[in-house]
Amino acid sequence: MGDNGLHMDLLAPENDRAEAEVKSGVGEGRLAKVVVITSGKGGVGKTTSAAAFAAGLALRGHKTVVIDFDVGLRNLDLVMGCERRVVFDFINVINGDANLNQALIKDKRNDNLFIFPTSQTRDKDALRREGVARVLEELKQQFDYIICDSPAGIEHGAITALYFADSAIIVTNPEVSSVRDSDRIIGILASRSRRAERNEPPVELHLLLTRYDTGRVARGEMLTVDDVKEILSIPLLGVIPESESVLRASNTGTPVAFDEDSPAGRAYLDAVARFLGEQREMRFVQPERRGFLKVLFGRA
Ligand SMILES: Nc1ncnc2c1ncn2[C@@H]1O[C@H](COP(=O)(O)OP(=O)(O)OP(=O)(O)O)[C@@H](O)[C@H]1O
Ligand SMILES: [Mg+2]
């Protein structure tokens, strides 16, 4: 995704760092849960979901940081609308060139939300595991949730992100290739996470079905929610509809969960509520019925 000049932080002061809040010890005694947003296949909506999920948790009053584990593509900061405020990043902190407070960016819309960006680098191994472990331990003291936006697949950054997870949100599109690759990631979470290595209770798994297009599902061009649930057999956290508002949100650097008028925004807020243990009816999966009736009665 390119910078199209629509981002709205032009007036943000360059030195609008997060020191005050982080140093104030607001989060003393906290021990954050590490949530990885992962997928087998690329381009399924992980970064969109990481931004939306972090925003949704912050809106619910939880102090949340969203970290970019993708050293290849720099786009979490764009989706969060803070790319012009990045001075130091995750790799600088891992390497000891900056401290956490210098790198964390406080969201301008919500006081509970922080962004921890990562710069592009050719060095695929820049996220050294000991360094990441140290930074996560420090963050855990200050936050309720640490949301990790992972690159796709099983390369170094993706494995590093899932290694530390307490909970994983597996982002899947309703198509065979995406579901098959999600199944592979579920296997990797079960065998290569730190929890697996230490014989601790396994990483909690959640399925997030994104880019769900009820029309295409009705026409048999995409798998249904039930198909995907049956194949992957992990609990369904939510179904996010295909929605133009996602593109609009990312063009303006606004996590879509801040847009309560959009179906995708509402679906993400529902998913966050379920993640926090609430019961919410699944929305945006129903219009199939109309499609089905149309097919039955041959109506245009
Ligand atoms: N619900 C949705 N409706 C419409 N478009 C969407 C939706 N979710 C994501 N997209 C679009 O799909 C594209 C890929 O999304 P995103 O960058 O979040 O995927 P990703 O899984 O992080 O990709 P990568 O594997 O490259 O990191 C983006 O253009 C995004 O705007
Ligand atoms: Mg991404």
Quick recap:
With 300 residues, the protein is α/β, with parallel strands linked by helices. The chain contains 14 helices and 8 strands. It has an 8-stranded mixed sheet, with helices on both faces.
What would your notes on this structure say?
It is built from 14 helices and eight strands. An eight-stranded mixed beta sheet has the order 3-4-2-5-1-6-7-8, sandwiched between helices. Helices cover 39% and strands 14% of the residues. The radius of gyration is 19 Å and the shape is globular. It has helices spanning 19-23, 46-59, 76-79, 90-94, 100-103, 129-140, 156-163, 176-192, 194-197, 214-218, 225-232, 244-251, 263-275, 288-297, and strands spanning 33-38, 64-68, 105-106, 113-116, 145-149, 167-172, 204-212, 236-241. With 300 residues, the protein is an alpha/beta fold. Bound molecules: adenosine-5'-triphosphate (ATP) and magnesium ion (MG). Adenosine-5'-triphosphate is lined by residues 39, 42-48, 70, 73, 151-152, 210-211, 240, 242-243, 246-247, 250, 264.
Kindly list the characteristics that best describe this protein.
alpha/beta; eight-stranded mixed β-sheet; binds adenosine-5'-triphosphate; 300 residues; disordered N terminus; 39% helix; binds magnesium ion
